């Protein structure tokens, strides 16, 4: 049997699920005990007590059976009424209530009424205004009689005390269990927060605590985080060192070629420039999103600044639409590089580009669109891989590249806990690149 439909009603947070695990069994047990007690004990006890009262009323009626008037009947019943602590008096029919009156939540009162009407003939009305007294109206040969007696004659006081006690101690035990459970769940929440922050490119202080299994998972996370940080640092240092060491011979080559005739040295100078661009791309890819610390910035101001810088360089780019306001925790240097890469690709393969920013309560989206040839849907996964060059999809004659532009953007997006999505622009018809970051 499939229970997938039930998942939509289950809380998603670990605290809410823990509370459900604690509260649900307590509530179910209390309901089961209450139902069993009411049906098996309270109802039987109330019926027996009410039946005893009915037999007493039959005895009282026997004393008044031979009376010829109401006064004689009252005189005959008075001794036993005093003994049984019951009040009785004759009333007018106009004083009889038209219907029974019982509080809607009074379960034992309904049992009393049902027993009285079933065992006593000629019952006119049963009135139970509170827990202290019951008024019973019955018909007789001498006229209607109102019989009043203490409510405790027909129902016990213990059920109410039982329910109150059960609810009180159930609430106390639930509170104690919740406090204990919260202390057990807090290390798991801290671990989740540290993992989420690391996924967004931030390293927050974390110490493994809690139960043995949680400490084991926490220590494994710390080892993994240290290993990843060490690998990133080593990769950055290695590529930075290689790039730095290769700059010196490239500079000597450029100086040597500058002494040669321009016509002969032109092709070689272009090769040197291409090698220089390749080294710069390697260095950008090595740095990735590690450059700069996260800080609260206005993403709209950042996008506007990047677009203005591109316009000053003569690039045909504009800021199309802006939605939302607020600040987001980002690495501005890395994100600026990502936007510059997307804009550079857009103007290289198209004639113009547009940038838009959408900021909501849950996400931030940077979008760069162009009117170029775009990238086919089946090639988009390959396009974000390092050193991937899709010659059939993009016009490589319009500029040189090493296949790291989109890979750098994707790396920066993942470091912010987001993703790079490629599609087709409905506005311009070319490539649409979205950097989507969760808040």
UniProtKB/TrEMBL annotation:
Keywords: ATP-binding, Cell inner membrane, Cell membrane, Kinase, Membrane, Nucleotide-binding, Phosphoprotein, Transferase, Transmembrane, Transmembrane helix, Two-component regulatory system. The keyword Acetylation does not apply. It is found in: Cell inner membrane. The keyword RNA-binding does not apply. CDD domains: HisKA (cd00082). Pfam families: HAMP, HATPase_c, HisKA. It is a multi-pass membrane protein. Residues 241-439 form the Histidine kinase domain. InterPro entries: 2C_sensor_his_kinase, HAMP_dom, HATPase_C_sf, HATPase_dom, His_kinase_dom, HisK_dim/P_dom, HisK_dim/P_sf, Sig_transdc_His_kin-like_C. It catalyses: ATP + protein L-histidine = ADP + protein N-phospho-L-histidine. Its EC number is 2.7.13.3. It is an enzyme of class 2 (transferase). One of its GO terms (cellular component) is plasma membrane. Residues 182-233 form the HAMP domain. It comes from the Bacteria. The chain crosses the membrane at residues 14-38, 162-181. This is histidine kinase.
């Amino acid at each position: 049997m499939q229970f997938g439909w039930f998942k939509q009603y289950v809380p998603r947070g670990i605290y809410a699920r823990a509370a459900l695990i604690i509260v649900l069994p307590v509530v179910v047990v209390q309901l089961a005990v209450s139902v069993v007690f009411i049906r098996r004990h309270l109802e039987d006890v109330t019926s027996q007590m009410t039946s005893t009262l009915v037999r007493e009323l039959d005895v009282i009626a026997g004393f008044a059976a031979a009376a010829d008037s109401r006064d004689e009947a009252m005189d005959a019943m008075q001794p036993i009424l005093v003994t049984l602590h019951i009040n009785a008096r004759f009333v007018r029919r106009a004083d009889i209530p038209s219907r029974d009156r019982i509080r809607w939540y009074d379960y034992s009162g309904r049992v009393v009424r049902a027993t009285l009407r079933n065992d006593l003939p000629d019952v006119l009305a049963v009135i139970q205004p509170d827990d202290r007294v019951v008024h019973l109206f019955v018909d007789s040969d001498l006229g209607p009689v109102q019989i009043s007696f203490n409510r405790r004659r027909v129902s016990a006081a213990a059920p109410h005390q039982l329910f109150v006690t059960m609810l009180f101690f159930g609430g106390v035990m639930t509170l104690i269990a919740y406090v204990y459970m919260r202390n057990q769940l807090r290390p798991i929440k801290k671990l989740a927060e540290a993992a989420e922050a690391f996924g967004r490119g931030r390293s927050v202080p974390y110490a493994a605590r809690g139960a043995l299994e949680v400490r084991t998972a926490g220590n494994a996370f710390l080892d993994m985080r240290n290993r990843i940080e060490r690998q990133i640092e080593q990769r950055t240092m290695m590529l930075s060192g290689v790039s730095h060491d290769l700059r010196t011979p490239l500079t000597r080559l450029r100086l040597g070629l500058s002494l040669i005739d321009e016509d002969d040295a032109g092709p070689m100078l272009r090769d040197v420039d291409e090698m220089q661009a390749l080294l710069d791309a390697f260095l950008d890819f090595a740095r990735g999103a590690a450059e700069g610390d996260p800080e609260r910035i206005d993403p709209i101001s950042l996008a506007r600044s990047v677009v203005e810088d591109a316009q000053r360089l003569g690039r045909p780019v504009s800021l199309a639409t802006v939605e939302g306001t607020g600040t987001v925790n980002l690495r501005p240097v890395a994100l600026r590089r990502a936007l510059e890469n997307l804009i550079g690709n857009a103007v290289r393969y198209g004639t113009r580009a547009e940038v838009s920013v959408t900021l909501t309560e849950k996400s931030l989206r940077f979008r760069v669109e162009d009117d170029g040839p775009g990238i086919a849907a089946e090639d988009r996964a390959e396009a974000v891989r390092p050193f991937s060059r899709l010659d059939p999809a993009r016009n490589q004659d319009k500029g040189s590249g090493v296949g790291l532009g989109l890979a750098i953007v994707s790396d920066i997006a993942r470091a912010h806990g987001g993703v790079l999505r490629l599609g087709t622009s409905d506005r311009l018809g070319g490539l649409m690149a979205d950097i989507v970051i969760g808040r």
